[in-house]
């Protein structure tokens, strides 16, 4: 990431994240053109060497690659949708957050107007941009990603996921599901232990060890899911369900919120009712892979 390069790049959208992206390109030595609806937000970047384009069209024409980072997809469409704007021949990387359907639709729209389009997802906060800690995911045509990878490397740890434009958004939300599930489980345990006077800092190292141990199971469990076969090698779902009942009882007995344990058990109960009690936990993928009917 210390490699300096002369490849020009444009950043459209200079909110908190867009400013960090443009700043990282500048720091890596890229001639950087910027545009923002509220032009005053470009002031700091301009004093650091960025060029402020007077119009969106000028911004797009200034570089072979434009990274766009605005609030949402409708904002992206609104600002690129004008008849006076040509996307022909430009490569757009849209790192605006959204869902996979929006990403695929944006790709069709941009490609229909002559652009090359990659969708991106930023799994980092602005201060991390430009460091290896910033994980930035991309999906769309691989040759377009590879052509601009040396420029994108200025932003952090960039990865390519596949040709389906929706993949970056899907990985993004999958990561969020993991993050909130782990945090909620930790908060549940912390609330339980607080009832016995154990503070959060005392429990945290233990919780971390448990989370790391469970993470070790994932590759083996993933193999079971991909094979569609769930032999109870270490534990059966019906045994887990009994422990879930203890978690609910304990939470209720000590006056702690039992919503999360009840949700966990309700899904496992459905798995048992469907005849999977003797199989291993990842068989619950069958519950997760279909809509919930209440
Ligand atoms: N901040 C983070 O930690 C973070 C992390 C990961 C991903 N992201 C994603 O990055 C994207 C931007 O986030 P942010 O934190 O930079 O947001 P922000 O600070 O609120 O900035 C929003 C940007 O969108 C522009 N914008 C909104 N509506 C527009 C429109 N109709 N036409 C033109 N420009 C419009 C704003 O322009 P004005 O300045 O003129 O209002 C501004 O440049 C979001 O999709 C967010 O989910 C952010």
Automatic annotation (TrEMBL):
<dbReference type="InterPro" id="IPR015815">
    <property type="entry name" value="HIBADH-related"/>
</dbReference>
<dbReference type="Pfam" id="PF03446">
    <property type="entry name" value="NAD_binding_2"/>
</dbReference>
<feature type="domain" description="NADPH-dependent reductive aminase-like C-terminal">
    <location>
        <begin position="164"/>
        <end position="289"/>
    </location>
</feature>
<dbReference type="InterPro" id="IPR006115">
    <property type="entry name" value="6PGDH_NADP-bd"/>
</dbReference>
<dbReference type="InterPro" id="IPR048666">
    <property type="entry name" value="RedAm-like_C"/>
</dbReference>
<dbReference type="InterPro" id="IPR013328">
    <property type="entry name" value="6PGD_dom2"/>
</dbReference>
<dbReference type="InterPro" id="IPR051265">
    <property type="entry name" value="HIBADH-related_NP60_sf"/>
</dbReference>
<dbReference type="GO" id="GO:0016491">
    <property type="term" value="F:oxidoreductase activity"/>
</dbReference>
<comment type="similarity">
    <text>Belongs to the HIBADH-related family.</text>
</comment>
<protein>
    <submittedName>
        <fullName>NAD(P)-dependent oxidoreductase</fullName>
        <ecNumber>1.1.-.-</ecNumber>
    </submittedName>
</protein>
<dbReference type="InterPro" id="IPR036291">
    <property type="entry name" value="NAD(P)-bd_dom_sf"/>
</dbReference>
<feature type="domain" description="6-phosphogluconate dehydrogenase NADP-binding">
    <location>
        <begin position="9"/>
        <end position="160"/>
    </location>
</feature>
<keyword id="KW-0560">Oxidoreductase</keyword>
<dbReference type="Pfam" id="PF21761">
    <property type="entry name" value="RedAm-like_C"/>
</dbReference>
